[in-house]
Amino acid sequence: MKTCQDFEALLSLFSNNELAAVPRAAVAGHLAACAACRQKVEDYHELKKYSSRLPAPELPANLFADFHPGVLEKIARHDDTQRQRLGLIAILYTLQRRWRLVIAIATLVALLALPRWLAYAPAFRSAPRSSLAQLLEKRDWTGLYYAMLNSDSRTMLFHEPVPVHLLHAALNELSHAQLENLRLRTGLQQILAKVKTPEGNSFRLRRSIQILGKISGTGFEPAMRSARIVWNPEITLRALAQAEADQTITLRELFLQTNLEGNKL
Amino acid sequence: MEKRNLTKINGEVKLNLSEPGFAGIVERHQQSLVRLAFRLVGNAEDAKDLAQGAFARLWLHRDRLDSAREVFCYLRKILVNLCIDHLRRRRRHEPEVAFEEEHFFSDLASPLQQLETQELHKKLLRCIDELKPKQKAAMILRDVEGYSVEETATLLDCTPNNVLCNLHLARENVRRKMQQWLAIV
User: Fold this and answer.
1) What are the chain A neighbours of B107 within 8 Å (beta carbons)?
2) Percent of chain A at pLDDT above 90?
3) Which fold has domain B1-98?
4) Domain coordinates of chain A in residue numbers?
5) Is A70 on the interface with B (CB under 8 A)?
6) How many degrees, rounded to 5, is the angle at CA A155 between CA A152 and CA A157?
7) What is the CATH number assigned to the segment(s) B108-185?
8) Is A54 part of the contact surface with chain B (CB cutoff 8 Å)?
9) Fewest C-beta in 10 Å: which of A194, A258, B7, B29?
10) Does A9 reach chain B within 8 Å, measured CB to CB?
11) pTM for the full model?
């Protein structure tokens, strides 16, 4: 015995004469015995009646004034795109046909660049890396920023124990300096403005900015907003003030501690 | 209302798709095409833009078409597809776009008729507008514009069974939302 549920999907089609003979007869048989389904079919009838009587939309009178030029413009735009595509294909085809020339140019560029690279690369590789303590001693905020951007050095800095008094003094100074020093503040903001931090950006970059945001306090507000981080420098500074001055602490320990007190990591 | 039966278009008329011939086709079809697009997207400027896009495609693919019937079908098929794409984009990017209902109610005969039917029609339009693009297109083409199931399938580029499935889902959805209104009527 078939139930209403079995006929559910056929009712709207039945009411609009869209069913073949066999299912139509089956639905008619069911409707003779089921008032609820008959009501649904009536509703579909009403719906059909009102749908077919919906008034035709009145279009604004001036809508067709520039219709034909608009079509021609669309055709021209398509032609331009087509031409650009063909131009690119032609360039690639030429390059592919003259692959010897392409290889020769690439080799020449590599040869010219190689001596310069050889001269600078060792200097880059052997550049002494500053420790967190050194950066804080020198109040080298720019150095700290770039050190934080690199994941390797960031991990090192994050786990490096530094004296509590040094960290407290440095963070305090940075927090005040960026409020009073317009140059420092705009400098920090300019650096951050160049670093895009939308959702799709790399986790590593966002993380660096979050960490920097924690270190510098309100100076990094724009970046912190986009990283959805709220940091209250007072909590961090209070936590540091409570610790013994000659004790050492890592940035990681500090953030974990202050997070427990209400900072969001 | 203009008779929109795809099979009744004179298929024997040889097509003139030179530039003046094309201008004539634009002139002849622009009103009905923009109206159809308006039904689907609910916005006059978007409807005009989509209809112009359909004519541009007709011009670019004119070599493939032979008869007036093909042009008629091709234009509507392209337009419906462009409208569905537009609706999908709109659902993704601007889910709360206002439907220009006022364009649908300016030609009702008497104030009494307006009072009686305007609210019901507004509700119906709103319910149809909330459907998924393909269901909305199927319901508008079949129930509002009066195309047959086969013609709707041709315009939507799918099978008649697919159209029936979309129609059922669309009508069921609208009926549920309109239930209390239908009970009053």
Assistant:
1) 55-56, 58
2) 4
3) Rna Polymerase Sigma Factor; Chain: A (1.10.1740)
4) 4-52, 132-260
5) yes
6) 110
7) 1.10.10.10
8) yes
9) A194
10) yes
11) 0.54
